[in-house]
Design goal:
This protein is an alpha+beta fold. The protein contains 13 helices and 15 strands. The two termini are 48 Å apart.
């Protein structure tokens, strides 16, 4: 069985023979090679900064992220963790491997005159049009067994209110508004000031929940399906203790916008499997399967196509029935055969005198229906199913358990409380005002 050895020196013994090493030289500026750029979806940790000469997360054009090794001992410990995952045949390690980003070895880059080692990992946001990302550090205790008294004291003060209440903390997130499409970022300073109530509000912001917009069941159920699996893993694994490790949560706001529009129009009600919200609990969640969570693709396409066609015909009929309309003294004649005078110039669609007709709103809705139709026709089945993702990340403080007869209670407390908060959004329709 390949596991992390309890002696720090022994865990690093094979690192002189690291596999899959790549070397690339910085070409210019602070100056990244072609195909490599700063990771825009970074929500925690340092950014690449030429003035302060800080090294941050990078991204490649082929959907990989480069995580820098800043502190050699911690970085080598994490590399060892990923390397062991690749070769281990232990059932616990094999199961854990499915919850972490895919590992592609390491790379070497020259940045600010320094040779920096990077871990190469799969980008959790690959393929997402509007990636919403949140970093959630799990555990009330975030210092490891080798921490100095000073380190322990420092860690105790970080995110103290959130960790004391829930056993986890939000270190940062970014979210695209489904109404405006605007990107908003919330950094570590925002997360450090969150109290118990503000943590719930932060989750609502991240999940695009507001008093006018209830939680999207498709999004919540998919998130829970990931969280439940990781919870089950920690209810059985006794090999490791995870300190200062995070869950990286991501979803595509473009896909969420699509589901919200369908839900508002009363379609796709069965796409989340019609799971009774009362059945959601952390004690029996392992009995709930995710096979009921699927997209009713063909029905959505037909509904969107029919609705779009109907609105087009409605507008045509309404225009054809308008004999004359004064558009701020720009009078143009439209006859019943839908032909126009030679000098006809349409500034905007004609309105009928019916109070029920609102062409501006109707054109907006028609455009939304068309977007839905195009989205369904052009999205692959993988994109439709894989628009919500969660990875376990940050393994610089993972240690072998001293007692294999006990569970990692520190991690369990955090993920159980996180699940309870997410489940809350399914239990009541009035959660937006909570």
């Amino acid at each position: 069985m390949a596991t992390l050895d309890s002696q720090a020196d022994k865990t690093l013994c094979h690192l002189d023979k690291l596999s899959k090493i790549e070397v690339a030289e910085i070409s210019s500026d602070y100056g990244l090679p072609v195909g490599i750029s700063p990771l825009e979806s970074r929500v925690a940790g340092h950014s690449l900064d030429s003035e302060r000469q800080t090294i941050g997360m990078l991204r490649t054009s082929n959907g990989r992220v480069f995580k820098p090794v800043i502190k050699p001992l911690l970085g080598k410990r994490e590399i060892t963790f990923y390397e062991n995952l690749q070769i281990s045949q232990d059932p616990v390690m094999i199961q854990l491997k499915s919850y972490v980003p895919r590992y592609y070895g390491t790379a070497e880059l020259q940045i600010f005159g320094r040779q920096i080692t990077f871990l190469k990992l799969k980008d959790i946001t690959e393929g997402m049009a509007e990636p919403c990302v949140m970093d959630i550090k799990i555990g009330r205790r975030t210092w490891d067994p080798l921490a100095t008294p000073e380190k322990k004291a420092t860690e105790e003060l970080k995110y103290a209110e959130s960790k004391r209440t829930y056993g986890f903390c939000i270190t940062g997130f970014q979210v695209y508004s489904v109404t405006s499409g605007q990107l908003k970022k919330f950094g570590k300073h925002y997360g450090k000031n969150l109290d118990a109530k503000a943590v719930v509000e932060a989750l609502k912001i991240f999940l695009n929940i507001s008093p006018e917009r209830p939680p999207c069941r498709q999004l919540i159920v998919k998130l829970l399906s990931f969280l439940w699996k990781i919870l089950l893993f920690f209810r059985t694994q006794r090999l490791f203790r995870f300190y200062s490790s995070s869950l990286l949560v991501a979803y595509d706001a473009k896909r969420l916008r699509h589901y919200l529009r369908l839900n508002e129009k009363g379609v796709n009600r069965s796409s989340d499997g019609n799971v009774d919200s009362k059945s959601f609990s952390t004690t029996n969640s392992h009995r709930t399967t995710t096979s009921n969570v699927f997209d009713a693709t063909s029905n959505n396409v037909d509904t969107s196509r029919n609705r779009t066609t109907e609105r087009v015909h409605f507008i045509k009929r309404s225009i054809s029935l308008s004999s004359e309309y004064d558009w701020s003294k720009k009078e143009r004649i439209v006859n019943r055969s839908e032909s126009c005078s030679p000098d006809f110039q349409a500034d905007r669609p004609c309105r009928t005198n019916s109070c029920a007709s609102n062409f501006d709103d109707d054109i907006v809705r028609m455009k939304e229906d068309y977007d839905d139709l195009v989205n369904e026709l052009t999205s692959s089945s993988e994109e439709k199913q894989n628009w919500v993702r969660i990875n376990m990340i940050d393994f610089t403080h993972v240690f072998p358990a001293e007692d294999h007869s006990t569970l990692d209670r520190n991690y369990l407390e955090g993920i159980e409380n996180l699940i309870k908060l997410v489940e809350m959004f399914l239990v009541s329709k009035d959660t937006t005002g909570a």
